[in-house]
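Sorry to interrupt, but I need a hand with the structure work. Could you add the entry underneath, on a fresh line?
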Amino acid sequence: MRHHPVPPAHHSNTQLRWEEVHRRSRVLRRIVDTGRIDPEDPETRAVFADRDDLVRALFQQWATLIGASVDLALEVGEVTNARETLRSAHRAALRRAPELYRLVTEEAATPLGARLLERENLRLAYAVGLATPGTSTHDAAGQVADLLASVARPVASRKPSWLRVAGDWLRGREPETNDVRALLS
């Protein structure tokens, strides 16, 4: 049997871009999981052009999470009050990613972070109906900032280990329900 040499791997531009997206996501996830930005980390420096690029990525991740939480609250939530809808969505996002929110609020002390947070708060104000066409952008974003600051940060609840879940399953205990409304409480 004749062996043919394996041709060298040829990566298309699309494949290389996807690999870069996945690498960037892994680094961002690691930063959020550790809850700290290490400006000297070589992988962080390789993936993000500068600190502003990293801050924008953190804010985008928070905007995506809080936006999804607002959408869920508006879709299935029983609250019709705009302020309570936003509070409920914010609590849900905080439970999902408390370290991300902490990083975002730390970065909000910088000029770039302040601009990004004000822009996101304005978007949230329009999403839940707190802002109307006559409202100034600064006032609308300020209302949302004050409202979100009044939301108590939830105490992190520990998820049961896989061993506990398996043991409960073997004993015939019912797993916790995945009630969508429970996500907003």
